[in-house]
């Protein structure tokens, strides 16, 4: 993967002129790879929301997601590109359509509504785990 290659190059540069423990270098490569993957996913979500003119709505969805994430666990895709596509759909495209719904409620109401949708999605995936053996962490 591209992120792993870039992480390996950065770690090589860090340890270029000094003695290093291979285990320590592997830890740094892994941490850099995860950082690069997360930054690329976050930038793809933000870029898509900017393209759809839904940055504000995307942020309204992210707030309840961050609150619910620690207690509700979540679904983990088996491939990184599937995770990226699902994340863009959930955090950029769906909020675009939710933001276009003519609601007479305020910003807090929209956030609560989006949080409820995310919570329902998590519950549905938990049920699917029981029946289909999905990977939930």
Would you kindly provide a written description of the structure presented here, covering whatever features stand out?
There is one protein chain. Helix content is about 80%, strand content about 0%. It has about 140 residues and is an all-alpha fold. It is elongated and about 60 Å long. The model is unreliable at about 130-135 (pLDDT under 50).
Question: What is the distance, rounded to the nearest whole angstrom, between the alpha carbons of the first and last residues?
Answer: 23 Å
Helix content: over 70%
Question: Which sheet architecture does the biggest sheet show?
Answer: none
Strand content: under 5%
Q: What coarse outline follows from CA principal-axis ratios?
A: elongated
Quickly count the helices: 5
Report Rg: 19 Å
Mean pLDDT, nearest integer?
75
Instruction: Please provide the count of β strands.
Output: 0
Uncertain spans: 130-137
Instruction: Give the ordered list of helices and strands.
Output: HHHHH
Quaternary arrangement of the chains shown?
A: single chain
